[in-house]
Amino acid sequence: MTVSDATRAGAISGRVGLAAWCLALPALAVAQDAGGAADPQLGEIRVQAGSQGNALGSSDAASQGSASAADIAARPALRTGEILEFVPGLVVVQHSGGGKANQYFLRGFNLDHGTEFATYVDGMPVNMRTHAHGQGYTDLNFLIPELVGRVDYRKGPYYAEEGDFASAGSARMRLPDTLPQGLAVVTGGTRGYGRTLLADSVDWNQGKLLYGLELATNRGPFDNSDRMRRFNALLRYSAGSESDGYSLTAMAYGSRWNATDQIPQRAVDSGLIGRLGAIDPSDGGTTARSSLSYALRRSNAGGSGRFTLEAFVVRSRLDLFSNLTYFTDDPVNGDQFVQRERRTMAGVNLAQSWSATLGGLDMQNRIGLQTRLDRLAPVGFATTVQRRELQTIREDRVREGSAAVFAENTTQWTDKIRSVAGLRVDAFRFAVDSSLPANSGRARDHIASPKLALVFGPWADTEYFVSAGRGFHSNDARGVTTRINPRTGGAVDPSAPLVGARGMEVGVRSEAIPGLQTSLALWKLDIGSELLFNGEAGETEASRPTKRYGIEWTNRYQAGRWAQIDADVALSRTRFADADAAGPYVPGAIGKVVSLGVTVPQVNGWFGGMHVRYFGPRVLVEDNSVRSRSSALTSARVGYAIDRNTRIALDVFNLFDRKVTDSDYYYATRLRGESVAVNDVIFHPAEPRTVRLSLTHRF
To answer: Are 461 and 152 in contact (CB under 8 A)?
Structure first.
């Protein structure tokens, strides 16, 4: 099939080979509207043309794609947040306890908990503004992986729909309306890991009712037991079709845990603690999240466009206890602190698309409105000892609202040339009532973000892309109004409310070689102010402007009937854009990520796969005098289909038991007995070899 034929017939996902092998999946939960229809007799997926929309001839950039529910189920994941590793070049790690948001790396960024990567679930933003622990905090632990029907990802600030935090990229996750069969999963693993899941969809009141309940516990590999407890629940009612229907979804999540935070290298070298030990074993936290969301879809007359409405309300809370400098500030009680917040977030998204013809040119148009209001009552920071509060440093009540309008036009100029032009305008308002009156205040700001993409081809099953655009991130509202450092009493300059970014990308996407989908992208991104993690404060803060560029090569190969092979390479170079005596290097910036995955279908009842990820070394200080080590981790799965509805699978993470790190920093800390703070590498070890056994039954 030629690219033009594929375009007319409908796109098939760049990861479609995995869906063809879903007979191998131990925990399959795929909805018909998530990219395939399940055959209850064969237990396999029939891929529907046009369901994924990221194949050659349907994308607007080389660095854009999708992952289906079958893809997610095919790859074993140590943590829920690793769903985002389906974005090529994105790395997900953990530098604390299992109930805390993951740490992310992509395109030369240490994203910390999500500062420059926007994430959504059914239109609900996951990134938290003005968060107690860091701007853009992205906690995906409220998701049940088997109930994620699809992940659509985009990289760069080239899309009119994407706004705050999307400079490096974005991921939009969709939940399914139905499951082809009920699903029951029981998992047990090393070091006290246990998980149960029950999910199904049933007919109810002329619609469908989808439910899911997950319970999990984990002692963890660290000397100080994680004692993690987590529950997730989902209830979704839907009616109508994909093009004309609606859904109402309720979700709830709660977790509590102990945390082994990052530790100093010298403490391990001296024998004070082991590499899985903790300086302050009382670190940890509790969190909860509940949400109610509504989605409506209506087709235009004649089917030439669609109206969509998404509305959501989210309530969340967090109490996070951390000690990152040990005894630097308080040699007697230690430096533990608590970051607390109670948040209500609400918003409405509207969009209307339609087809038109102007001067003989075919066009697709889309306009939209996005609103969001965050109310934090309160968000606070206090010193503690053994989770007992000593002194409140600051406590704020925050109201932060935003509204954005966007418009996008796609024009087919010739059979081989099309353009995608867009413009969005965002307006923000900040209001902070602080326990320190001098840090109270009001502010407002707005920013315009033009976008343009040109697509050329196809020629010989190959298309070429050129993209440019502006993006932005918001800063913490408290930083926008703060005039006095609450710890020292010294004067500080407030942060800019909104910080712009400029990006460019050229790329190619090809299916010229039978069975192979490959894409190559060269990109560049400049940001007016970097958001960096401050180890001493335990949160992100505005820093200097940066510039970065890189290259990404993504490959999906269907090796006959026996395997699907994924191979990705991402290289980047990051520097501060201004001159400073400290140096030009950006601490934590990622430079190299290489991943290779193989998924093997069922053969005589057996199935399996393997995934290898190389995570390159990172600069830890501005003058490049200290660098982290690289790491390579391997995960593997082997399973057996007992019958067509029951399967058993063995997952092994860190297969070769590599003693490497998940995250590394370099800053001053003081251990008990030391007279002064010492600059040192502060690291969090990757989990040692971990084994989990799952029994899955579909009913």
So the answer is: no
Cα atoms in the 13 Å half-sphere on the side-chain side of 587: 24
- Which residues of 511-655 form beta strands (DSSP E)? 516-527, 531-534, 539-542, 546-559, 563-576, 592-603, 606-615, 631-641, 646-653
Whole-angstrom CA distances from 258 to 383, 645, 663 are: 18, 37, 18
Copy the structure tokens of residue 99.
């109930």
Q: 332 CB contacts (<8 Å, ≥6 apart)? A: none
Give bridge partners of residue 481 from the DSSP assignment: none
Q: Distance between CA 93 and CA 256 in Å, rounded? A: 19
Rounded (5°) CA angle 94-97-103: 25
Tokens of 442: 């009001």
Determine the distance from the C-alpha atom of residue 630 to the mean position of all C-alpha atoms in its chain, rounded to a whole number.
Answer: 22
Both tokens of residue 494?
Answer: 């407030």
Residue 247: what pLDDT?
97
For residue 568, which of 591, 592, 589 has the smallest C-alpha distance? 592
Q: Identify the pLDDT of residue 222.
A: 97
Give yes or no for a cis peptide into 264 (omega within 30° of 0).
no
- Helix, strand, or coil (residue 147): helix
Q: Which residues face 93 on adjacent strands?
A: 103
Question: DSSP letters along 253-321, please?
Answer: EEEEEE----EEHHHHHTTSS-TT--S-TT-EEEEEEEEEEEEEEEEPGGGS-EEEEEEEEEEEEEEEE
pLDDT tens track for 319-378: 999 999 999 999 999 999 999 999 999 999 999 999 999 999 999 999 999 999 999 999
